[in-house]
Write a structure and sequence with these properties.
- The chain is built from nine helices and eleven strands.
- With 255 residues, the chain is α+β, with helices and mostly antiparallel strands.
- The strands form three sheets. The chain has a six-stranded antiparallel β-sheet. Strands 7-9-10 form a three-stranded antiparallel β-sheet.
- Helix 6 runs parallel beside helix 8 and helix 7 packs across helix 9.
- The longest helix has 22 residues.
- It is globular, with a radius of gyration of 20 Å.
Length: 255
């Protein structure tokens, strides 16, 4: 059984033949961007546009990743979660990469392979690279304020829906060039919906992931302002203070 979808907008350009079905996507050649035991990512050019193609293989490429052959029988493969999460971001108004094509293939009910294709968001740099390069924009209070406010709203929107990203790190946040930055949230294969104490734990983890670099690059005032923007409060409440302590302690002893 095969499930494959292509954005109708692509059918009016040369992308139609490139991403028309899963067979064509799995023989594509491009610039290698990342790879692990479960998937690989390549960047391909079609006309004047560039795309990222992420391809997943059934049980993975090595014995350690196969979990005794059980992975292929999971009801919701990682690739499906990834495209569904990107679609959820769109529905919530969170800027993210445009999905061009996605789908998967099963045999006898077991997952065999799957892929998703996203269009490159041109003119952007991920926040981790900005931090590692000592970019001067991090010294611009107005720029930091704009970026932090957008991220706070993204996080609040997700968490209010009972959803946690589970890898909300600076490398997964792209920022456009120029004095009026726009932030995009990408790469969310492990995000999901939670409830009760499980959701609260995941929320703390998301916020702690953001603070992991922020505590070295931003001032205490900027970090506090971010948290207040996230909560929508003017001042820290007793519950906020307890939450902040949990965020600060989350990675203690693990860095």
């Amino acid at each position: 059984m095969r499930q494959w979808w292509v954005d109708p907008l692509e059918k009016s350009c040369c992308g139609e033949t490139t991403f028309a079905d899963i067979d064509r996507v799995f023989v594509l050649q491009g610039d290698p961007m990342a790879a692990d035991s479960l998937s690989d990512v390549i960047r391909v050019s079609v006309g004047t546009r560039r795309y990222y193609v992420k391809r997943y293989q059934g049980n993975g490429k090595d014995a350690k990743s196969r979990w005794f052959g059980l992975r292929q029988w999971w009801p919701f493969p990682r690739v499906r979660k990834e495209w569904e999460n990107l679609l959820a971001f769109r529905n919530w108004g969170i800027p993210t990469a445009r999905l061009v094509a996605y789908g998967l293939e099963r045999r006898l009910g077991g997952f065999q392979r799957g892929a998703l294709v996203t269009e490159e968001i041109s003119g952007t740099t991920d926040l981790a690279r900005i931090a590692n390069n000592g970019d001067a924009r991090l010294q611009n209070g107005r720029w930091v304020r704009s970026v932090a406010l957008q991220i706070a709203r993204m996080a609040r929107t997700m968490h209010s829906a009972g959803f946690a990203h589970n890898d909300l790190k600076w490398r997964n946040l792209l920022v456009t060039e120029g004095p009026e930055p726009r932030v995009f949230l990408i790469d969310c294969p492990s995000g999901g919906y939670w409830w009760g104490p499980f959701l609260r734990y995941r929320i703390i983890k998301d916020l702690a992931c953001l603070d992991k670099i922020a505590k070295y690059r931003l001032s205490r005032t900027q970090r506090l302002r971010f948290y207040l923007d996230y909560t929508g409060h003017r001042h820290l409440t007793p519950d906020d203070k307890r939450c902040v302590r949990k965020i600060l302690d989350f990675f203690a002893g693990r860095e």
